[in-house]
Write a structure and sequence with these properties.
- 40% of the residues lie in helices and 26% in strands.
- It has 115 residues and is of the alpha+beta class.
- A hairpin with a 3-residue loop joins strand 1 and strand 2.
- Helix 3 packs antiparallel against helix 4.
- The two termini are 18 Å apart.
């Protein structure tokens, strides 16, 4: 696990008996917390990997929308936003490569904790 990358984006992974796996500390962490299964994370990793290789998805949809938070992929970057029509501001932006690595760590954390 790349702890320096998690620290850079203020992301903390935690698992409790009451709530299970959680991510908190920043908008990127809030997005991850909405991705609540390793299966969902794997799907997002596949889509992100395609963009990392310079491709695009067939339907042209560059969004990842797990729940309240979403992510848009564009020009080698990812923008995290609150997925609600009243809010249009982006909360965070990070390089696509960093996002991919963080999402891999989150997928692995979910798997380790039975999700």
């Amino acid at each position: 696990m790349n702890l320096a990358l998690l620290k850079k984006y203020k992301i903390v992974f935690e698992c409790t008996d009451e709530f299970g796996p959680q991510a908190h500390g920043s908008a990127v962490a809030d997005f991850l917390d909405d991705v609540n299964s390793s299966r969902q994370a794997k799907g997002y990793l596949s889509k992100t990997a395609l963009y990392l290789k310079g491709g695009i998805v067939e339907d042209g949809d560059n969004s990842l929308l797990p729940n309240a938070y979403g992510a848009r992929i564009f020009e080698g970057k990812v923008s995290i936003f609150y997925n609600h029509p009243r809010y249009s501001d982006d909360f965070a932006e990070l390089p696509l490569k960093d996002f991919y690595e963080i999402l891999e760590m989150w997928r692995d954390f979910l798997i380790q904790n039975g999700r």
